[in-house]
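Cross-check.
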Amino acid sequence: MAILILNRFPAKLVFFKEWLQELGEELILFTPSYYEQDFPEYDVVRGFENYVYSSLVEIEALHLHQERPIRRVLALDESDILRAARIRERLGLPGQDVASAEAYRDKVVMKGLLADRVQCPPYRRLETGVDLYEFVQEHGLPLVVKPVDGMGAMNTTVVRTEADLQLLYRKGRLTGMMVEVYVPGDMYEIDGLVAHGRVELVSVGIYNDACLNYQENEGLYIELLHPNEEMYQRMRAMTEQVLAILPTPEHTSFHCEIFHTPDDELVFCEIASRTAGGRISECVRQAYGVELDEAWSKLSCGLNVPLPETNEPRVLSAVYLIPKQVGRLVGMIDSFPFDWVKEYQPRMQPGMVSKGQLAAADTVGSVVFVAKDRAELEARYAELLAYIEQHVIWAAEEERVESGQ
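Predicted model, tokenized:
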């Protein structure tokens, strides 16, 4: 029997061969064509052009099953969740089914299941500008327009003014989008693991306000809370309520987002049945000693996974995503001179040109660091920002042209 892995990530981020080696089973990997040569250790590798949208991924899985029977399908990325569920249903395999995948992928379906029992902002699925117009007439501004199956705040627009609204009306059809009332306040992100139908690990973090304002080049910062903090307890309770209402898979990691308003209300934003991006997973690993994707993959294939006996973190951790500026990168950090920086992943090199950020996680690089408590975490964050300000240097593109470079 074989394990089919749908994988959009580069080889440096996923280690299925290592995670699943004790199975002794054939591993089949489907991946974008530009990564096809990067996985020589797998038994079968298929590369696909236009991987995220190609129907050939599912069709090839059905064909391959005839000669290499598949017993599990693994998919860690948001874009693979639904089609992995379709493959499972077609082949009669265990794991997340289509109804569950749709509930976690389609934010309108999601809120339709939750709204009677969990506080959600008013929302509506959009097809045309008229749908948006009617929503504005009822609820006014500001509001948020985003894809029903979006991730990482990509293509998400905060509509604050009539001028902002006119830009959306000019688009005409808004198929695949939704609108909801803008919720003021802080946003918290809750990550964890469901194993054997039980919530076994919960981590709670708070964003700075750059998640939706990434175009302003502030840089996204997320720091984890200690479980003895009141907001940790409140966020955990609401997330567990959401997981209990939705058709949650027997085994899954999850990433939930909840607003805390100035009136001290908790308002549900969204949840995904996958591990968070933006290196939040590394923050969780530093704090709790659990690699979420590894644990999720092993559990899905029937392997045992040791989990922490308590939710007491070993350290507190945080991640900062260094923002892109418009222009040419002329100075970049090779490494940080701080022993409390536990992971640094640069994504740009000097000489590369940027048009600015396209999403919250579209950055120059990410930095994960740790501390013994929240006060130390915030002090180290300030020190980190000062070092980045000094060493990450941008030049306008016209300067490059004028200098003849």
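The domain at 2-94 is CATH 3.40.50.20 (Rossmann fold). The first helix runs from residue 16 to 19. Passed to J.P. for a second look.
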